[in-house]
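Hi! If you just cloned this repository, the fastest way to understand the data is to look at a raw example. We've pasted two of them here, unedited. The first protein comes first, obviously.
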Amino acid sequence: MARSKDISMPLSLAVKVELFKRGCFDFITCRDGLRHEKQGQALSILTDNDHVEVLYGGAAGGAKSWTGAAWLLFMSLAYPRTKWFIGRAELKRITQSTFITFKKVCSMYGCSEVLYTFNGQLNFIQFFNGSRIDFLDLKYLPSDPLYERYGSIEFTGGWIEEGGEVNFGAYDTLKTRIGRHLNLEYGIRRKIFITCNPKKNWMYDIFYKPFIVGTLVEYRYYIACLVQENPFIDPDYIAVSYTHLTL
């Protein structure tokens, strides 16, 4: 159903959007006197003018998905008519998991469902201000090894979640599709955000190994976040995670 053109953000949310645009992320990264330093670092890099590709790695519990969802939400609200993507190896994982996180993020920061709709047939989120987030199925298809199905789509930026499950060809294609939709008009740098659990695949060769030896190119950035570095995580979650790791 089409949204009314008279819809506008409530003042409380508009204030958060303005803070986000100014690089003030405390309303996301701080809670109950605690600060998620790595999350703040990620958001700073995702909104700077120096970096293009950002890898946020680490075991489950580091708030990687929350960070990605918050970044896309506030970029979409701050810059009308921009176009973004969320990609995973299986589309159903986005609708069954990532989108659930996205809705929790919206609820946390006061973005009600009056301000956006989800198209379940074509798999995209449409905001009242014209911004849009497409859900992309990044499954490898032998009939499309170069991901030419996305080769002509223009995005402002986007997020590959669970990069350890995603074929290199998806990343290689999508990094050429960002920065093509209203970036110049708004003066925002193209960005591709990749979140992952530890895995020795293309991310290891492109991000982690160069980072370790000090040869990571300037337009890329690598952040590692351990579950213990998330101050908002339930302590029982950490205990269960470590019990699982020792089995």
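Ok, and the second one:
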Amino acid sequence: GSKLYSSPDGVNWDPVAGWQTSRSSDNISIRTMTVYNGQLYVGTENNATGGELWAYDGKLWAQKKVFKDPSVAELHVFNKKLYAGTWNFTDKFKFYQSNDGASFNNVTPSFGGDALANVGVMKLIEYQGQLYLGTVNYQDGFTLLRTADPSNPKGWEVITTDGFGNPSNAYSWAMTEFENKLYLGTFNSGLFGGVIDQL
């Protein structure tokens, strides 16, 4: 299963206490981490029983939720609430909101385009007071959405549903703010019309 390490100086690394001994080996990947309410939250990929969300207070681990989708792909804190985006290899992604880090409500965005082909949340980022959600879509190119109120599934503004006009832009993989501009980097391997078309 996945491994988790910590370092006090960036040079010396040790396994985090309790992670590997209390976690199933089916948690093959740690996909995302964030800090919420003074705890470290870790989301996993688990293709056997569903992606898991764990919280660590520095001493003990507590399982917060097991999702139906195989992967907890992205976590983000926005307006003091915790948001989790999933990845499902055969169905549309899901998007959840939590006010306490333990109970979650499904607030998956409702938007146009080929929503079903958006199988995963690739990136969540806050920019100029809005939450941006970028997906992975091997068929049409990634979708990019934004909203100031993620609790409203119908309140999302659609920026693109076709990878900025390039269907081979499958992932909105990396996003960050620099000099008052929002940057987005993609994964593009020329899949459109190739492997995916055959599948």
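That's it. A detail worth noticing about the second one: The helical segments are 19-22, 195-198.
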